[in-house]
Amino acid sequence: MKKLVTISILLILSLGMFAQDEQYMKMMKETIAMIDTAKSIKLFQQAANQFERIGDAVQNQWLPFYYSAYCYVQISHLEKSDELKDMNVDKAEELNNKADKLSPDNSEIYVMKGFILQSRMNVEPMIRGFRYNNECLEMFETAKKLDSKNPRSYLWHGVNLFNTPSYWGGGKDRALPLLEKAIEKFASFHLQSPIHPDWGREYAKKMLIKCKE
């Protein structure tokens, strides 16, 4: 399977295909489908590798690197050791920076920046929360300013406040309006293309229920 994927990616490179070309779209859809059902480190790693190979092949598209970063964040949440968590967060940041260079001022990429910072804080919440929390919130605020219709900016801002102690300005009361706004935005959200980000909808519903408990 890996050999076939590599051959297909080399074919993209040799033919000079761009984002809307049929082969690129086909491979992106297939790899996105992988992460939609992935629950293990192994499967997320396979998807991350495939996205990165696609990104390296087409060179001028941000989405493959963005999705690869997403996979590494998910891996960091599944790893048990702090060292491995940090290694995967570092890799996620590296890939998201590649996406950022290809598509500056992109709301989705700023959401991912905040998502990555949240993952850093998960390793040592009391120590790193003080260091990264304000920066993390700034990423979500920037994401909202860049695209007020992006539901993930409201979702992860709300999740951040939900997990932040009230004496640091967080808590359920502050998270609830943002999570409600995320649900509202998801209801009216229209995909730019079949391969653009569309994740977080079900998680938003779960978090809203938790926030109301």
Outline the fold blueprint.
Layout lengths: L1 H14 L6 H16 L3 H18 L4 H16 L3 H21 L4 H17 L1 H22 L4 H12 L9 H17 L12 H12 L1
Helix pairs in contact: 1-3, 2-3, 3-4, 4-5, 4-6, 5-6, 6-7, 6-8, 7-8, 8-9, 8-10, 9-10
Task: Walk me through this protein's architecture.
- The chain has helices spanning 2-15, 22-37, 41-58, 63-78, 82-102, 107-123, 125-146, 151-162, 172-188, 201-212.
- It contains ten helices and no strands.
- It starts with a helix and ends with a helix.
- The protein folds into two domains: 1-104; 106-213, Serine Threonine Protein Phosphatase 5, Tetratricopeptide repeat.
- Helix 5 runs antiparallel to helix 6 (107-123), helix 6 (107-123) packs antiparallel against helix 7 (125-146) and helix 8 runs parallel beside helix 10.
Task: Kindly summarize this structure in a few lines.
This protein has helices at 2-15, 22-37, 41-58, 63-78, 82-102, 107-123, 125-146, 151-162, 172-188, 201-212.
Please supply descriptive tags for the structure shown above.
10 helices; 0% strand; 2 domains; Serine Threonine Protein Phosphatase 5, Tetratricopeptide repeat; mainly alpha; 213 residues
Oligomer: single chain
> What structural category arises from helix and sheet content?
mainly alpha
Helices and strands, in order, run as HHHHHHHHHH
Number of domains: 2
What is the name of the CATH topology of the largest domain? Serine Threonine Protein Phosphatase 5, Tetratricopeptide repeat
Terminal CA distance: 46 Å
Q: Sheet bearing the most strands, described?
A: none
CATH class wording of the largest domain: Mainly Alpha
| Unreliable spans | 14-19
Provide the CATH superfamily of the largest domain. Tetratricopeptide repeat domain
The portion of residues forming beta strands comes to: under 5%
What is Rg?
Answer: 17 Å
The number of E-state strands comes to 0
Q: Give the overall silhouette.
A: globular
